[in-house]
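Structural prep section.
Before we set up the soaks we want a predicted structure of the protein with uridine-5'-diphosphate in place, mainly to decide which crystallisation condition to try first. Input record follows.
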Amino acid sequence: MNKKVLFVFGTRPEAIKMAPLVKAFQAVSEFETKVCVTAQHREMLDQVLEFFGIIPDFDLDIMEPSQTLNSITAKILLEMKSVLDVFKPDLVFVHGDTTTTMAASIAAFYSGAKVGHIEAGLRTFNKHLPFPEETNRRITSVVADYHFAPTQTSKENLIRERIAEDTILITGNTVIDALLESVAKVQQITHPEIERLKELINPEQQVILITGHRRENHGAGFINICEALKEIALRNPEMLLVYPVHLNPNVQEPVNRILGGISNIKLIHPLSYPAFIWLMNRSKIIITDSGGVQEEAPSLGKPVLVMRDSTERPEAVLAGTVILVGTDKDKIIKETQDLIDNPSKMERMSQLHNPYGDGKACERIVEFIKTT
Ligand code: UD1
Ligand code: UDP
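Run finished without errors. Recording the tokens verbatim:
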């Protein structure tokens, strides 16, 4: 009998990183593969599903404006039960460290299904940083049966937590599989959002790309970030800062209030994945607090300044493709200006090796599950 495999995800980055894996499982006839989206994100999830052509079999549609961690967790735990009762999967795949990941893995465990955790073993060793992701991923590691670690460091973190070594596989990050597939696709299509970006950005202008959303940066952190970006824009009028603003109201409010109306800052709607890849490629520098963006950017040869105080992705810092700048206004300004004023430093950073994978993570995961 075919092994029943259920993929559960809910936010934009999980969807991007799960999409190539869903396709890889769908292509193997010995698996019966279904997809359940929690829709913890709605619009930003749907953008990804549409680009990758994934039609969910189950859609919990839980998102509400300014949702709380409690409401996300409670709704998923309750609503996953009927999905699990109907499909009765042998194996449930979850990804990373969102509240969808944590709640879906617990629901799968309660149902008796095995749990496969993609992007397992990332740690800052501070349960509040990032919040709540560090704790979400630790809980998921306790519940999971198979741990797909992107790097040697993430595998070692799991072994330190006494997770059996034969349940851990180093795969590389599926984000690189998604990126390589999508870069090729972006070159073959005409995309209305990309055309709009070409109109927005003067061909002569150098672009600084910004993204940010972390919960622990809400409030004071975001005010510092925005004040720093404003100062960078004013000091460098020849550069264009392009910021696709996350839809979280805690992000929208300070960003629009502090950065609206500055002529060389463009605040735009979150971009679909192909348009975002185009924009990353078009940028000189990326300033972000995103996990996924700092994994992707080195593959496109882009230096990244990360607005976080600690990181679960030390590999990029060690490789030199990423610099941690925290949310201190002066540090963000200083490090950005240093890159702008030192093209040779920018050049050095952009030529370094991406430590996060080779685009074959999905292949490795499929082979592992075939033999278990
Ligand atoms: C979530 C994840 C975070 C991940 C991030 C990726 C948790 C606790 N947080 O954070 O780990 O890095 O996604 O972006 O799991 N909203 C919309 N439309 C959308 C998406 C969001 O309107 O398509 C708004 C809603 O008001 C929603 C709010 O954003 O309530 C917050 O969404 P939520 O998923 O709770 O938090 P994120 O900050 O997006
Ligand atoms: N991304 C996107 N459109 C945007 C901004 C980001 O498609 O406007 C993609 C980006 O390429 C990366 C992912 O979204 O793959 C990162 O998502 P996010 O920063 O929201 O979450 P994190 O990675 O921090 O969990």
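Observations: The chain is about 50% helix and 15% strand.
Flagged for discussion at group meeting.
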